[in-house]
Amino acid sequence: MHFPGGSEMSLLGLLTNESEEQNMVRSLIGLLLLAVAAPSWAQKIVTEAPNRNQVIQVHTALNHLTVIEASEPVITVATGSDAFKVEWRGNKVFVEPTEPNASTNLFIWTRSGRLNYELDPAGAVRSMDFAIDHPKPVTVSNAAAQKPKLPASNKVASDPSGNFSEMTSMLEGCPVRDEQLKPLKNRVNVTINNLFEQKGILFIRYEIRNDTRGAYYSRTPKVMLLSGAHSSQSLVSREDTQLSEREAERLSYRAWTPLQVLRGKIRATEVAPGDATSGVVEVRLAPSPQEPRVLRFEFGTDGKGVVSATLVL
Question: Residue 102 and residue 122: Cα distance in Å, rounded?
């Protein structure tokens, strides 16, 4: 802005002559260049190649989301504490701390394997991770190298303590194929995420999604073994697969046997319309030469019928 007498008003609101203004402009340009060159500590975005043998530190902040974007759709997730709210949609996992001084671990499963994280206590916003990106492998050879080897027949070495370990099951469990299940409209739908078998004990992780208009009250499922099961599509080559509700209804079997449920846990017993919750169930399953084995899980009714899931082992 020009003033009478050849004086000018600078950006700082001071009266200067033209030569002084030129020096001031040079100084301002230098400061702007320094500001642009300085790192933006308040917007930290991390890029990491997927690696099941690596544990990634995640820095969080209260009232802020950290987004973890995998290179493929997420099958399921697990955390060691309720102090962090964790949700997922497609290939994105959203993490938000709910307590200031809590830390825990986080596991994410995709088709290619498991990703491991340590969730640090909530800290300052300027040091948090806003996003963690896992890019897709560039070449086919890299993708093959990163694909984990699944344990044969879903069996792994014994727990050193001699006891069944829930953490071991989450680390070594195999993902369950769903053959592109289509959720039933206006029903409660169950998706079996992954399973682990050791010493005649089967550990199953599942998700319950309420697609009705009313609240659903979940419970530990009843589990039955369907002996001599047959389907219009062969079950022999469909190990670790959840059948669609339509195919499950058309199954024929010789007899059913209730299995002993040793333990069950679910995050929320009341599931609001449109919401989902996850749970685990531990079942005693004696070894059998019969292949394949078919299990039916029944969770009660949703007002329109029995809520169930059928799994081929």
Answer: 7
